[in-house]
Design a protein that fits this description.
The chain is mainly beta. The chain contains two helices and 28 strands.
Length: about 375
């Protein structure tokens, strides 16, 4: 019986020991659009020795260390319940390095402003945490900029000031770290056309070197994750779990979303965030046939792309001309448990090339998200509320 790709199942676990896959459970299920591992167990080369024949011969081929990699495309899907981690939690954590998940429901006690207030309780809240604030019956996601006991400020500003008694909740926030020592085990199980078990493969020692988040005005948010790995196995892949227990229902789409530049709402069409972590495999140790460990071997880079129609210059275009960095914020979804927010506090956009069509011209803004200071690790934040 042939394999049928649409029935393939993927499970993701966090390894305790680099290169050793933790057997997945049903709840480790991750829905995916495409999963592509790469693997070369031999990396053979030809002998440099001189010989009579112009061809390659069997005895003149030498083994080298095995190499592996992987790439995964999926919808970026919240869990549906605030403070419940999404099914992509292990992937996002391996990409960012740290996560906060504070469960707190409080209210605004006094001094409600567009950029802050005094809460009834601010216990446990930290800078960079994600919060939702109800204004006019709408749940707006924001990131905490400062906290002093119960006095909190957030970014960006709200469209209008909330009222005393308005509900404020904390959610999940993924934050960048200097060290990034999280490796994953990815197990993919195929099914044959008759429904029986098919081809299985396990990728071990997988690290997240690249993370792309894409938000489109008329599509669900998508994520692409990938990087190098230690190895791939078929016969050594753990047994498939009995069930595939996914988390979350329909993700939000760009139909319900907004983009902010600094403290002003900005009309846009597409937002793309591409992060490269600079991860490398230690694959040159004498006596090892595969990667010994993974480490950050280069600088992190966060590229931003934002497509907009040509209209108001003052919000973003003028800043590109003067070389002024801007803060970028986007929210997708306004239903609790199904809200995604991202923020880049300091984006250096370049002056875009303006096209000249017969229809409406566009601005394809491209830039780089920067740290606010050396070692701040604050180029990008991701929140789920």
């Amino acid at each position: 019986m042939l394999e049928i790709g649409r029935r393939g199942r993927l499970y993701v676990t966090t390894e305790v020991t680099f290169g050793t896959i933790v057997a997945p459970a049903s709840a480790d299920a991750v829905r995916h659009i495409n999963f592509t591992p790469t693997f070369d167990p031999k990396n053979r080369v030809s002998t440099p020795e001189k010989k009579d024949s112009p061809g390659r011969h069997v005895t003149g081929r030498f083994d080298r260390r095995e190499t592996a990699g992987w790439n995964l495309e999926a919808l970026l899907r919240p869990s549906g319940t605030i403070n419940t981690v999404p099914e992509a939690d292990e992937l996002l954590l391996a990409a960012f390095g740290s996560k906060t998940n504070l469960t707190l429901s409080t209210t605004i006690a006094s001094v409600p402003l567009v950029g802050g207030c005094t809460l009834t309780s601010g216990t446990g809240i930290a800078v960079g945490d994600s919060i939702s604030i109800v204004v006019g019956g709408v749940k707006y996601g924001r990131f905490v900029a400062s906290i002093a006991t119960n006095a909190v400020t957030w970014v960006p500003n709200l469209p209008s000031a909330p009222i005393v008694g308005a509900v404020v909740k904390t959610g999940i926030a993924y934050k960048l770290t200097t060290a990034l020592a999280i490796s994953l085990g990815l197990c993919h199980y195929g099914k044959k056309t008759d429904g029986t078990a098919g081809f299985k493969r396990g990728v071990s020692g997988a690290v997240v070197d690249k993370l792309a988040l894409n938000f489109d005005a008329n599509d669900e948010p998508r994520m692409t994750v990938g990087g190098a790995a230690k190895s791939q196995t078929t016969s050594g892949t753990p047994s498939a779990p009995a069930a595939f227990t996914s988390v979350g229902n329909q993700p939000p789409s760009g139909i319900s979303g907004e983009v902010w530049i600094n403290n002003a709402a900005y009309k846009s069409m597409k937002l793309g965030i591409d992060m490269t972590n600079g991860m490398a495999m230690r694959n040159d140790s004498f006596g090892y046939s595969s990667a010994e460990e993974a480490f950050r071997g280069g600088y992190r880079a966060v590229a931003i792309g934002l497509d907009a129609k040509v209209e108001d210059e003052t919000v973003l275009f003028d800043n590109t001309e003067t070389g002024t960095n801007v803060a970028l914020f986007a929210q997708c979804g306004f239903t609790e448990g199904n809200i995604i927010i991202v923020r880049a506090p300091a984006v250096e956009f370049k002056v875009p090339d303006t096209d000249d069509p017969d229809e409406t011209p566009n601005w394809p803004f491209k830039g780089m998200a920067l740290e606010s200071a050396d070692g701040a690790n604050d180029e990008i934040f991701l929140g789920l509320l």
